[in-house]
Each structure stands twice: as C-alpha cells, then as structure tokens.
Design a protein that fits this description.
It contains ten helices and seven strands. By secondary structure, the chain is α/β, with parallel strands linked by helices. The chain has a seven-stranded mixed sheet with strand order 3-2-1-4-5-7-6, with helices on both faces. Strand 1, helix 5 and strand 2 form a beta-alpha-beta unit. Helix 4 packs across helix 5 and helix 7 packs across helix 8.
C-alpha cells in the first residue's frame, strides 16, 4: 500500500471524506491514543502544574483531548485544509486552532510553549509537493522557528514514519542545526508490527530517554492505564492538588464566548465584537 504522503499533498489527500473517516475509525483512534500517551510520557511535563503545549498537525484534536485529560492547555497547528477545522469544531475541542503550512515555520513569540508534540506529521515535510518546495529548507525553517518558541528547558516529541534511513538522517540533522539536542527513541525495535519511532528533541541540557522493549501494550491495557491516570488526577484534585480538565457543563455558552473574547483582546486581535445583551443568543433556524 502506498504511503499517504506519496499519494498527494496533505491539503489534497485529507479531503472532507478522508478527515471524517480518519476521526471516526476506532482502530485509528486507538493507535493515536497509544502514540500520544507515549509522546506525553517522553515529553516529561511537570506533574504538579498545567503546561502550555503546541500540538503540531493536530487534525481533528484526537491528541488534544488527551492533553486536556492531563490538565494541560494546548494550541493546535493544522495543515492548510479547512476540513480538519470543521471536524475539530464539530467535536468541540478545547484548544485554539491555527490553519497554516508547517513548512513555513511558526510565528509565536520566543519561549511561548512548555513543550510540543506531533503524531505522524513531520514525514510530510520531506516531499516536494510544488516547484517552490525544498525539503531541506522547509525542515530548517520548521525546526528553527520551533526552537525559538519553546522555553528553556523543554522538549518536543515527534512520532513519525520515515521511509528510509536517509530521511531519518535528514530530519535529525536539520533539528541539530536548529539548536536542538536529544535524538531518536525507538520502541520495540525487534518487532516489525509494534516498532515505533519518536524524535525526542531537547531545549537545554537533558538526558535522552530510552525506548521500550518487550511486548507492546494492548488496547485494553492502554485503556486501563489511562483510567488509572484519570483516577489519580481526580484524587489529586479532591485533595487540593493539580487542577483537572475544565468542565464544559459548568460553563454556559455566554460565559465561554465572553472568555474567548477577553482572550482575543488580550492577544491584541482586531475586530473582536463588542459584548451586548445579544451575545450568545440562540439563532432562529433558517429553512
């Protein structure tokens, strides 16, 4: 079977049908959950506080949901495809979403994020999908701007599917030239089916974690582990510890909209509508 990145650019391959199918497939969601859980483990965020995380290539927000469950705030960066935004909004994800080509780099302020994760994305940067695309230049711009927007110390963890050792070398070299430390973490290296590759990049001096060995966790074991994490977080919350996931049911639509408006004004965004008695009013259905 051909690899998706070899069939068409992401803005063409992931059409409305493909995006819906990807998000609704239970097997894909299970695999995504396992890889995101492992990426968060490698990210090694502080357990006693909420972190601000960049989810690169967030798609419909499957990884973002796990970040929310861990009590973190996240921003999603989506490739140039509106269908992902539609699916994410339908699923009512909590993170703010940006629609932009990751090969053009990031425009965030230095030291904005406490960490970054990415699941099955960076291999797309290795394809020249147009005459203006140069994989080495796109990788350099990607990693240089990412390094700038991460605080020191912090980590960025990328799960990816390289098609050759040359691609691995190109990605690792580009990250090192941008100033990152760290390296590759390979889980289950002796298993053709369970083998997973993670690029664990470091800002600041840190030790590279080791890969997993032995048998891969089953879907049931992964679900059980996630339930244990939720219960532990709930116990910490009840005992006055770290805050848990923000409850949607405790916040009205108007409160949520006013909060979003305040956030946009704080960021200096222009054109934010004024608050009035009509804010968050229910619209009449048009037939």
């Amino acid at each position: 079977m051909s690899r998706p990145e070899e069939i068409a650019p992401p803005e063409l391959f992931y059409g409305d049908t493909e995006a819906q199918k990807y998000t609704a497939n239970s097997r894909i969601k299970s695999i995504q959950a396992q890889m995101t859980a492992r990426a968060l483990e490698l990210l090694a965020l502080p357990e006693d506080e909420s972190a601000f995380v960049l989810d690169i290539g967030c798609g419909s927000g499957l990884s973002g949901e796990m970040l929310e469950e861990e009590g973190h705030v996240w921003v999603g960066w989506i490739s140039r495809r509106v269908c992902w935004v539609k699916v994410a909004l339908e699923r009512e994800v909590e993170g703010d979403l940006f629609l932009h080509d990751i090969g053009q780099g990031f425009g965030f302020r230095p030291g904005t994020f406490d960490g970054a994760i990415s699941i099955s994305v960076i291999q797309w940067l290795l394809n020249a999908d147009s005459a203006s695309h140069s994989p080495p230049q796109r990788l350099a711009r990607f990693f240089t701007t990412l390094h700038s927007c991460l605080r020191n110390p912090s980590r960025a963890v990328f799960q990816f599917y390289p098609s050759s050792d040359d691609q691995v070398q190109m990605i690792v070299s580009a990250a090192q030239r941008a100033g990152f430390g760290g390296g590759l973490v390979v889980d289950y290296p002796n298993s053709r089916k369970a083998r997973k590759m993670y690029l664990c990049l470091m800002v600041g001096q840190q030790e590279v974690p080791k890969g997993l060995d032995g048998e891969e966790m089953s879907v049931e074991e992964t679900a059980k582990r996630r339930e244990e994490i939720k219960n532990e977080r709930r116990r910490r919350k009840e005992s006055g510890g770290r805050k848990g996931k923000r409850g949607k049911k405790d916040v009205t639509a108007k409160e949520w909209i006013l909060k979003k408006k305040d956030l946009y004004r704080t960021r200096g965004k222009e054109g934010v509508p004024l608050d009035s008695k009509y804010t968050a009013r229910k619209r009449r259905v048009q037939f």
